[in-house]
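We modelled the chain as a single entity of 448 amino acids. Its sequence is:
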Amino acid sequence: MLTPIQAQERAADIVARAVKAGVDAADAVFAADASTEVSVRLGKLEDVGRSESEDLGLRVFVGQRSASVSTSDLSPEALDALVERAVAMAREAPEDKWAGLAPEERLMHGAPPLLDLDDGGEVSPAELREAALAAEEAARAVAGVTNSEGGGASAARSVWALATSHGFAGGYATTGYGISASVIAGEGSGMQRDYGFHSARHRSRLDAPAVVGRLAGERAVARLNPGKMESAALPVVFDPRVGAGLLGHLTGAISGQAIARRTSFLLEALGSAVFAPGITISDDPHRPHGLRSRPFDGEGLPVSPCAIVEGGVLQTWLLDSASARQLGMEPTGHAARGVGGAPGVTTSNLYMHPGVVPVETLIGDITRGVYITELIGQGVNGVTGDYSRGAAGFLIEEGAITRPVAEFTIAGNLKDMFLNLTPANDLEFRHGTNVPTVRIDGMTVAGG
């Protein structure tokens, strides 16, 4: 695979070709990926997959008109044809007064931060197979597990580079490793499924396969013989693996595109309290070996840790250059760029700061409530904030998590949910978005 410097040169080369062809401005993305995945089931090898790709995306501007094209054919003839096609498309495109490259004076220059995203490791398919087998074996060894959907292990390396016609060129490499197991407990109509999964930039930081597998088995068995929930207004406690989705609803509502289009339930919320006073939510692109760390954003702007919510108060929108211009503001370094199309926005390592109480205290005064471990469906309205999701989990009775429950719905409005949210102190950094266990009082629970 190419080095980041070579990838950067590829992106800069096609930008130079576009400028030579007469465009007013251009940027390009080069992305290369190589990954190996191994899956097993019931102790036997089921599949070995290897994928490799190299893709180049070019965006050109002719006045206020723009076009984006991409290719996986990197021959000189194909690149010349790509530039020619992009220029022709841009000249026929409608004008967009907000589109354009990032402000030149804001571009990142100098050495990028050292984020330790590439451990340089090589993993053989045989090693991945052994890891997948160990994960599944540990899951199947849990008493009550009756079948398996399989174990898996993966290893990947990626290189990403961006170049612009007004002075930016940069690239970086990442590695990624994953281990998973999914098993079934029980028999017949009473079967329950659950999983365990972990991923890391460094193989040395990956959970042991047996740990991942055992967790999958224990989760599946714990869900056996679920009861029903009555319909009532109850405290709802979100397990961290599902609670992180709440931050996804927040970032969608504060993205520049949603604000510019006036399609957000937080439209007038900048600078006001959207969470309880003790809540802080931060975005840290510089977290060493973080799953979403990056040295610069999708437009070549520098990135830095920031508080999105501080003391409950919303501090910023998430703005790329186009939405920033439309709103009369400055871009925030949250631009995201794929090989095709214009930039959007994204966060990096997003997390809610932990609270001060342990989980046992957080639920200790709940006479009757529900602990959510699974959410089903997409019943969230980003314009109004209305929230309704199918759910499964465990009943909370007299301050303790007791028996499994399933086939019920939780509902509320995200504005109220955010204001009534209380975090526990058990934050762990295991995903791209991380939250501690969180409690929301007064949600509507509708039984099946």
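As a brief sanity check on the tokenised model: The longest helix spans residues 4-20. The chain has two domains: 4-221, 225-245+354-446.
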